[in-house]
Amino acid sequence: MRFSDWVASLARVPSLEPLLRSRLPRAEWADLCPSGRAPLLAARWLAEPVKTLVVTGSYDRALAWEAKLTVAGIPKDRVRQLPSGLSALFEDATPEYAALSDRIGSLQALASDEPCVVIATPGSALERTLPKEVILESLRRIVPGLPLSPDQLVETLVRLGYEFQEPVRLPGQFSRRGGIVDVYAAGQDLPLRVEFFGDEVESIRRFDPGTQRSVGAAEGLDLMPARETVIPPESSGLGDILRSALAREAATLPGEAAARLEELV
Questions:
Q1: pTM of the predicted protein model
Q2: Which of 136, 149, 161, 240 has CB atoms 3.0–4.6 Å from 199's, for a disulfide?
Q3: Phi, psi of 206 (to 5 degrees)
Q4: Is 28 exposed, middle or buried (0-12, 13-18, 19+ CB in 10 A)?
Q5: CATH number at residue 118
Q6: CA–CA distance, 36 with 18 (Å, rounded to integer)
Q7: How many helices (H) and strands (E) does the chain have?
């Protein structure tokens, strides 16, 4: 018997069934050995998939939880990491595009109605982010046959915080060559190539960012903001909005940190 099959069978054990199939809004598992936590959580999720947030002590432990849950049988695309997004703002280093992409993908998963498991550290879980309604309103679904021009798609990408880069290699980047737009959408494992026929989406295909070669067709493209900031459609007053937000955030920080924030922004 495979380990994942054994985990799934735990929900049918008479002594565990009341715990693993409980619909109570809160359940406390006391005196549970560390090695049993991931299998039991996976068994409960497999019995009744629900939106689940796992908070662990460090990022290394979060990675270990992700590995254990996928081995226990939870589909890999249903397990997500919620890394911190603060390093991109407060550290003098190149932004961690993959980490930012993972964070955006996890926030979208938490905001949606789809069951998933999101793994976070206390710091990353407590960071301020976009409101749920803004995340859902910002989501754009691009599918073949959709009336949409390349110019309109590029305009949407810029508003969602994507950067022009040729060729596309990292999450949050896009490029355009005539009627072809390449997009590495936040939260996705591979970039996608959107081909247009006039003002209509003709096809969408995944491609390898290393070779730039297509690896298969995609049903559609789910566009999320590339950063935890969305430029309003009517951005004439964007400067005032940014200055107001900066003043509010700086007021909550110590003097040195507030000065550093103003310098970076």
A1: 0.76
A2: 149
A3: -80, 150
A4: exposed
A5: 3.40.50
A6: 17
A7: 11, 11
Give kind and range of the element (H or E) at residue 80: strand 79-82
pLDDT recorded at residue 95: 56
For residues 143 and 47, give the distance between their C-alpha atoms in angstroms, rounded to a whole number.
Answer: 33
pLDDT, tens digit, 9 for 90 and up, residues 167-224: 999 999 999 999 999 999 998 889 999 999 999 999 999 999 999 999 999 999 999 9
- What pLDDT band is residue 24 in, cutting at 50, 70 and 90? low
Coarse DSSP helix, strand, coil percentages of the chain, rounded to the nearest 5 percent? 40, 20, 40
Q: Which domain holds residue 244?
A: 239-265
Question: Number of folded domains in the chain?
Answer: 3
Return the exposure string of 49-62: e unless at least 16 CB atoms fall within 10 Å of the residue's CB, then b. Answer: eeebebbbeebeeb
What pLDDT, in 10s, does the model give residues 132-165? 888 888 889 999 999 999 999 999 999 888 999 9
Q: How many CA atoms lie within 13 A of 158 on its CB side?
A: 10
Looking at the fold, whether 155 and 112 belong to one and the same domain comes out as no
For 49-97, the pLDDT digits (tens) are 989 999 999 989 999 999 999 999 999 999 999 998 876 544 544 557 8
User: How many Å apart are CA 91 and CA 78, to the nearest integer?
Assistant: 30
